[in-house]
Amino acid sequence: MDEARAPRRGVSPRLWLAGGWLLLALLAAIFAPLVAPQDPLAQDLMLERLPPFWMSGAEPGYWLGTDSLGRDLLSRLIFGGRIAFVVAFAAAIAACVVGSTLGLISGYFGGWADRIISRIVDVWMAFPPVLFAILLVAVLGTGLSSVIIAIAVIDWTRFCRVIRAETMGQSRMDYVENARIAGYGRIGIMLREVLPNVVPSIVALLSLEMGIAVIVEAILSFVNLSISTDDPTWGGIIAEGRLSIHQAWWVLVFPLITLILTVLSFSQFGEALKTRFDPVLR
Amino acid sequence: MLLQRFLIRLLTMLVTLFGVAVVVFVVIRVAPGDPIAMMLPPGATDADIARLRALYGLDKTIVQQFFIWLSGVVRGDFGTSISLRQDVLGLVFNRLPATLELAIVALVMAVAMGGTTAILGARERGTAVEAGIDIASGAALSIPDFLWGLVLILLFGVLVPIFDISGRVSPQLDLPFVTQFYLAESILRLRFDLTWDLLKHMLMPAVALALPLAAIISQLLKQSLKEVLDLDYVVLARVKGFSETQVILREALKNAALPTLTLIGVQFTFLIGGTVIVERLFSYEGLGNMAIDAVINRDLPLIQGIVLVFALLFVLINLTVDMMYALLNPRLRHG
């Protein structure tokens, strides 16, 4: 490896920034009832469309302003984070377990297993993912578990394709052959020898997938198909902001910034983790 | 050799489409929730339900139902939309051109943006310009089209309102079009006033769709260009006195483009998938926007039709790219 490409020792600044934002957002979501300055559902028509704190006409205690029903934007964002993170973790892990398992089997055993799994992946890739998600949630009924199931059902192929390719590469390596000569069984080799070597990719994909899950949840609540309409969600706030964009831009700007920071952080975090865990790069 | 490859791909494509048909059918029929209950307004009587069940053949087994539906689809009969009470195929073909025009404009923009930045980055390799391009493409890639759409709405719809952020064309305009390919027809009819109006509506959603793809093209093409630029024949061209830009455009580009071309094919299907939500965001009257309405209205025949048309589009693009790759790659051409 040439000098210029050698990875830096220690934790990179982008890992700090990404991890810092995610930790902050996660803690705020967990302790939402303690952190949120207002009740996220409380409507007050006297306080409708208050601007954020630095503008004239702002009210103390309503830092980021209010929406058209007078609900506090910051509190809604903090509570919306609860749903975003639950969906991110649950859906990404479910997609990861299903996709990685099938990818490992497909890549390591090859033959019929590979042919069948690859054909299923082809079929899945022929669906427009957002439409598929909307359809699944419409069929399963709105609610947290439907959203999680829908995302996992759609995005397992992402893991399957990458892990299949990586496993195929690893299976051709000498250490796998050595393990076979040493008399290990095929499943034993797959789990003990191949799996640890594809873990860096799985971890990176998992982090990326959490970001994607947050977006899909936002899209679903944007089209009003996610959780019940009462609970604040980032997508739901965005849908509201899109409608009142000319009267109250902040209702769109702040959830948008929140979403962008979260998605960027998940993808940067994944990249950084991959470099850190990859035995070759390290 | 090529023909054989084509036939195998065609067969795989049919299997994939059959798979899609099965999955859509099963998702809609087997998942909890009675499709008839979805079709009827609340308060329908049991007699109503039974009558509708028989009408739609839902009293038969699911396998029978599937083949009845499939034999209709093969004959071009996708059924009748429940919410719009029109032929599904007609509705789909009415909306498909709007989506295709949007997707193609987005693709052209992605290739233009990605190609330009790749060539610029390769020419200025190792400088701050390349580093800047890397950062920009990294951001463009990490942020999905849905969020780009919102950013663009804020920037060019509200902050500096120079583009339209809603609809396909200004409603007050008198449209002389006979097809649904408005943009293409406006150009052919030399009605550039209408072309401009259409583009003003299309630009923002197209940019939102194009940015992530532009970033991918930029990164991959720049990488390939940098590899080619060290090869002997390129060095020779440089010695002959061509400028670095000429070297890239005349010598390096055609040899570096093949991997990018293959990638564009797959990524183009992702872009088309993105039109669903981006059309919704910009109230653009395309297939994706209609699909979301169909789901919200529980219009099963329409959903099935739209999903199948999207799937057909996806596999056709993949088939085309595969064939183009085989034609352009000398190793496969002579193999």
Can you put this structure into words, describing what you see?
The complex is a heterodimer of chains A (about 280) and B (about 325). By secondary structure, chain A is mainly α. Chain B folds into two domains: about 90 residues, no CATH class; about 240 residues, MetI-like (MetI-like fold). In chain B, about 40% of the residues are buried. By secondary structure, chain B is mainly alpha-helical. The interface between A and B is large, with 42 and 47 residues.
Q: What key phrases describe this protein's structure?
A:
heterodimer; A: 282 residues; mainly alpha; MetI-like fold; 10 helices; elongated; disordered N terminus; B: 335 residues; 2 domains; 14 helices; 0% strand; globular; OppC_N (chain A); Peptide/nickel transport system permease protein (chain A); transport (chain A)
User: How far from one another are the termini of chain A?
Assistant: 11 Å
Range of strand content of chain A: under 5%
- The chain-level mean pLDDT of chain B equals 87
Calculate the terminal CA-CA distance of chain B, rounded to whole Å: 8 Å
CATH superfamily of chain A: MetI-like
Largest sheet of chain A: none
Helical content of chain A stands at 55-70%
Low-confidence segments of chain B: none
Please provide a brief summary of the model.
In chain A, 70% of the residues lie in helices and 0% in strands.
Sequence-ordered SSE layout with sheet pairings:
The complex is a heterodimer of chains A (282) and B (335).
Chain A: H1 13-30, H2 32-35, H3 73-109, H4 111-125, H5 129-140, H6 144-171, H7 174-181, H8 186-222, H9 234-243, H10 250-277
Helix pairs in contact in A: 1-3, 1-10, 3-4, 3-6, 3-8, 4-6, 5-6, 6-8, 7-8, 8-9, 8-10, 9-10
Chain B: H1 2-30, H2 35-39, H3 46-55, H4 62-74, H5 88-123, H6 128-142, H7 145-159, H8 182-188, H9 192-228, H10 232-239, H11 244-281, H12 287-296, H13 300-328, H14 330-333
